[in-house]
Amino acid sequence: MFEEWLDGVELRTIRSYAGETVPVDPTEVGAGLIVLGGDMSAVDDVVAPWLPATRELLAAASASGVPTLAICLGAPMWALARGGRLQVAAPPGIEAGVIDVQWRSEAVGDVLLGGLLDLTVAEGRRSTPMPSMHADAVVDLPRGATWLASSAMYPYQAFRIGSAWGVQFHPEAGTDLLSLWARADEDVDAAEVRDAYASRADELADAGCRIAQAFVVLVNERAVTGAALV
Question: Which contacts qualify for 2-5: CB closer than 8 Å, 24 or more apart?
């Protein structure tokens, strides 16, 4: 779903799992970078030999001011690359289905996610529903990171350093993709996940679209001015 929401920018997709080369220089990614999820751990370098290069790219892109959005697996990869700490198969267990992302006060005015907080406050609440499917988790944020959101199971649902954001949830996932992931995990009730998404489908699509469109604005600003966010 993200691809259709990212209207207004030219997209280039690198399928590292299919053997496509991950760029080493952040200037090669253009004016923005999105790193998506996967079913491996962020440190499973033997199974996924492209992970080290992706971690390096995340660190380089964020350090150089390229607007960067690291989603699910991408979030702990980026956190690790910037000095954070990950726990594989964290004790709370798999966080699957639709979760309520609780916004912290630090999210007020955030150029990527702050609009979601504004919307929830206007509606008399403090959380936004988001698709989720993960078991690994960031347990220590990198130095200098701003903690933006949590959930009932895992604290670090969203965090930021400068022009880069990590989100543990899946703003890009629609019902088909989330259901596919659920069916692939024997510990997840796929029917429950499907029903949970269906019950909040409009809210979920709206939230994901808002994040994508806010990211497009940042990418276009970077393309025009070359300036880094602080």
Answer: 2/34, 2/171, 2/172, 2/208, 2/212, 5/208, 5/209, 5/212, 5/213
What pLDDT digit, counting tens, does each position of 94-140 carry? 999 999 999 999 999 999 999 999 999 888 889 999 999 999 999 99
Decide: 48 and 38 in contact? Cβ < 8 Å. Answer: yes
| Composition of the chain by helix, strand, coil, percent to 5 | 40, 20, 45
Residue type, position 118, single letter: D
| Contact call for residues 77 and 58 (beta carbons, < 8 A) | yes
Burial class (CB in 10 A: 0-12, 13-18, 19+), 62: buried
Question: What are the chain's domains?
Answer: 2-225 (3.40.50.880)
Neighbours of 138 (CB within 10 A): 26
Q: List CB contacts of 141: < 8 A, sequence separation 6 or more.
A: 79, 84, 147, 156, 159
Q: Residue 214's closest CA among 131, 109, 124, 121? A: 109
Distance CA 184, CA 147 (A): 31
Separation of alpha carbons 175 and 198, rounded Å = 7
**85 vs 43, 76, 88, 141, CA distance in Å?**
11, 8, 10, 7
Cα–Cα dist 221/230, whole Å: 14
* Whether the predicted model's global pTM rises above the 0.90 cut: yes
Euclidean distance between CA atoms 191 and 152, whole angstroms? 22
